[in-house]
């Protein structure tokens, strides 16, 4: 008679909550923004610009988050250099993912070690000013993420997300769109807004 193996030291639970989200790829960020904010009434609450993360072919991206209400969010990746006529492809498949939430770094690392012990390829913990995450794939190729908050996302100024979108509108028309170009254009817009009396 087989006996159950003793539980590991850490078996953290996973949950979907206000930190977490369903994320998809968009080829048309401005049209996506208009649809979710105007047709569906979901405010754009923040936007993250990053480089060198998800794919080698398209390392630079912007991650837009819309508030679905009740603590839920939907997010979209926009990849620099991805043409609007690009059909759904392996990039879309690999970039569709579900995120789960844990509270502490200890839990996050425990999940990383547990997955690696089962032969699952897991990224090193990657983060920015809001969250730290590990990424891995399920047997169907769906990208999964376990994330912990570094600070409260609700404290992000929605104006910052709007400036990111405005900067992106300029950058995507340039010959060399990139995350670095977006950061520079956004900084210019911030300085320009600061110069307007009463802004």
From TrEMBL:
Residues 18-149 form the VOC domain. SUPFAM superfamilies: Glyoxalase/Bleomycin resistance protein/Dihydroxybiphenyl dioxygenase (SSF54593). Pfam families: Glyoxalase. It comes from the Bacteria. Coiled coil: none annotated. This is VOC family protein. It comes from Streptomyces cinereospinus.
């Amino acid at each position: 008679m087989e006996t159950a193996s003793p539980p590991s030291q850490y078996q953290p639970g996973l949950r979907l909550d206000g930190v977490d989200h369903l994320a998809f790829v968009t080829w048309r960020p401005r049209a996506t923004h208009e649809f979710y904010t105007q047709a569906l009434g979901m405010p754009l609450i923040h936007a993250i610009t990053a480089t060198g993360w998800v794919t080698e072919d398209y390392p630079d991206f912007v991650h837009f988050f819309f508030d679905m209400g009740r603590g839920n969010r939907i997010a979209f990746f926009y990849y620099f250099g991805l043409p609007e006529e690009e059909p759904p492809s392996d990039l879309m498949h690999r970039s569709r993912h579900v995120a789960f939430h844990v509270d502490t770094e200890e839990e996050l690392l425990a999940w990383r070690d547990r997955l690696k012990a089962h032969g699952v390829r897991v990224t090193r913990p990657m983060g920015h000013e809001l969250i730290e995450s590990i990424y891995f794939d399920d047997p169907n190729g769906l990208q999964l993420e376990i994330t912990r908050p570094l600070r409260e996302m609700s404290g992000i100024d929605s104006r910052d997300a709007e400036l990111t979108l405005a900067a992106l509108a300029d950058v995507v028309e340039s010959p060399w769109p990139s995350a670095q170009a977006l950061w520079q254009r956004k900084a210019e817009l911030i300085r320009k807004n600061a110069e307007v009396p009463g802004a």
